[in-house]
Amino acid sequence: MRWLKNAIWLVLALFAIAVVAAQEAPAPAATSAPPAGASPAAAPMPADSSAILAASESLTPAQAAARIADKYRDGKFLLHPEVSVFVEEYATETVTILGQVAHPGTVRLTAPRSLIDVLSLAGGLTESADRHIVIERKAQGAEPEQRIRVFLPNRADDTLNANVFVRPGDAVIVPKAGIVYVLGDVAHPGGYVMQNDSQLTVLQAIALAAGASKTASEKHIRLVRNVDGITQSLDLPLRDMERGREPDVPLQANDILYVPFSMAKNLSMGLANITAAAGSALIYATH
Prior knowledge:
Layout: H1 2-24, H2 49-54, H3 61-74, E1 93-99, E2 105-109, E3 113-114, H4 115-121, E4 132-137, E5 146-151, H5 156-161, E6 165-166, E7 171-174, E8 179-184, E9 190-193, H6 202-208, E10 221-227, E11 230-236, H7 238-242, E12 256-259, H8 263-268, H9 271-279, E13 283-284
């Protein structure tokens, strides 16, 4: 019988120890089981999680998820939180495209894209577009405001190599290409766009106008150029330039080449008349 009493006292002692341990342990939070087919209830959001989400512009989704998980852990909401952040919709910014494009205006970008892609969204360059393009970039953080000048050559390989990226918020400005006027005794007098990499020479301009006529006086043609508001005139030996005796002369935007019909008419044609004729000339865009 003594062994039975000892066994009873041992059971009572173990029960008392279990009761004391249960009283010292914190009571678990009461939870209710979710209904059948329903997903488990999400843990309450930490009080400052909304501030994390509001300031998450500089965070990636993974970084934002890690930051929220830390708040769950630090606030003792969950011991091992698993947080996933998904981007439902990206905030878009506009890129302004102005100047010589088919459809000037704004396009929406969610990420940087190449200049060629952005120009294609605006319908591409017009025939009178200059190849020297300007990108205006706003200041971002420590990066100051920038003005990026890009030259897109006519050659495909060089254009792809010179391509740059346009960021959301940038402004792309495509200026109008310079025009050279070829007047007088030529087959097709008019204005010609400087599309050949925005460069043009005297012989190239005469060739675009289908050459001088048989009745033209090619010994001396006249180059009229406006320099700082002052109109200047220069005689050029077209015949010697065609035969390689004189170097070809590069032209500038708004230059006027006048090929005289004869020496008498060349002398009688004043600068004012030549300039006025250029104002009413047809404009040709070559390819």
